[in-house]
Design goal:
The protein is about 20% helix and about 25% strand. It contains four helices and nine strands. It binds iron/sulfur cluster (SF4). Belongs to the radical SAM superfamily. 7-carboxy-7-deazaguanine synthase family. Catalyzes the complex heterocyclic radical-mediated conversion of 6-carboxy-5,6,7,8-tetrahydropterin (CPH4) to 7-carboxy-7-deazaguanine (CDG), a step common to the biosynthetic pathways of all 7-deazapurine-containing compounds.
């Protein structure tokens, strides 16, 4: 298959359990919960997205005709000065990465010595072979992928389906609440941070995930 990729870049994971870890972010184009066009936002299932996942025109983006070609492009981002033993890590994100991520691509990443993580909205079952599955449920979208390593819930979301208590019995190793960032409204964002922190204090299963990359100016 041909893979449509918005961008590929090396950064530090800013969120969740792997915060601070060097990783190649490989952002697939396209999502099944929003077109990515502002004119469609109000009618979309997921309405708070702050990611540009349209097209293949970002740094390192493009259409890749084979899994090997895409894995080569990802591997080229990993620092060749690394002698520290840090395991190469690729995070497949989007958009919704499980629209495109398949077994041959996971194999191709593994052949380059990469651990493979995915950040998904959970509406599509994950293929076998992934090393890290992070599910971030969105609004009323039906949750299909109900197990994994990390459940990272943007908080608060107004739909009853996304109350944290709905997820606590699922089979995840880690549960994170991530305050909803409201672009251009720091007061609203701060109130979300406070309410997420209060929830974690009252329900210690949950840990607070802040978007540290935004604090330090990384992409
Ligand atoms: S599911 Fe993720 S990528 Fe898709 S619109 Fe929502 S936040 Fe954006």
């Amino acid at each position: 298959m041909t893979y449509a990729v918005k961008e590929i870049y090396l950064t530090l994971q800013g969120e969740g359990n792997h915060t601070g870890r060097a990783a190649v972010f490989m952002r697939f184009a396209g999502c099944n919960l929003w077109s990515g066009l502002e004119r469609d936002r109000e009618e979309a299932v997921c309405r708070f997205c702050d990611t540009d996942f349209i097209g293949v025109n970002g740094p390192g983006g493009g259409k890749f005709k084979t899994a090997e070609a895409l894995a080569d492009a990802v591997a080229a981002q990993w620092p060749d000065t690394d002698r520290s033993g840090g395991k190469p890590y690729v995070i497949c994100t989007g958009g919704e990465p499980l629209l495109q991520l398949d077994a041959p691509l996971i194999e191709a990443f593994h052949a380059h010595g990469f651990e493979v993580g995915v950040e998904t909205n959970g509406t599509i079952a994950a293929p076998a072979g992934l090393d890290w599955i992070c599910v971030s449920p969105k609004a009323t979208a039906p949750l299909v992928q109900t197990s994994g390593n990390e459940l990272k819930l943007v908080f608060p979301q107004k739909e009853a389906e996304t109350h944290p208590s709905r997820f606590e019995q699922l089979s995840f190793e880690h549960f994170y609440l991530q305050p909803l960032d409201v672009i251009g409204d720091p007061a609203q964002t701060a109130s979300h941070v406070a309410s997420a922190a209060a929830y974690c204090l009252a329900h210690p299963l949950w840990r607070l995930s802040t978007q540290t990359h935004k604090l330090i100016g990384l992409p």
